[in-house]
UniProtKB/TrEMBL annotation:
This is Cbb3-type cytochrome oxidase assembly protein CcoS. It holds the Pfam family FixS. It comes from Aquipseudomonas alcaligenes (Pseudomonas alcaligenes). Keywords: Membrane, Transmembrane, Transmembrane helix. The gene is ccoS. It comes from the Bacteria. InterPro entries: Cyt_oxidase_maturation_cbb3. Signal peptide: none annotated. The chain crosses the membrane at residues 6-26. NCBIfam families: ccoS.
Amino acid sequence: MSAIYFLIPIAVALVGFAIWLFFWAVDNGQYDDLDSPAHSILFDDEDPQHKAAIAEADKDDDAQDKPRG
């Protein structure tokens, strides 16, 4: 019975850490683009169209990162 007094606070701490870790990942953009990495394995790296698409995506990402004003 005394083990519960140790296990409950440990479980609450682990849940709190998992929630903090999830919000940290969301704030740092880990879930912003879920489709591009999955699609990128389908293309040949030497394909000029693929290189152009990557350059365009990088340009769009840079434009989104800069503050507008």
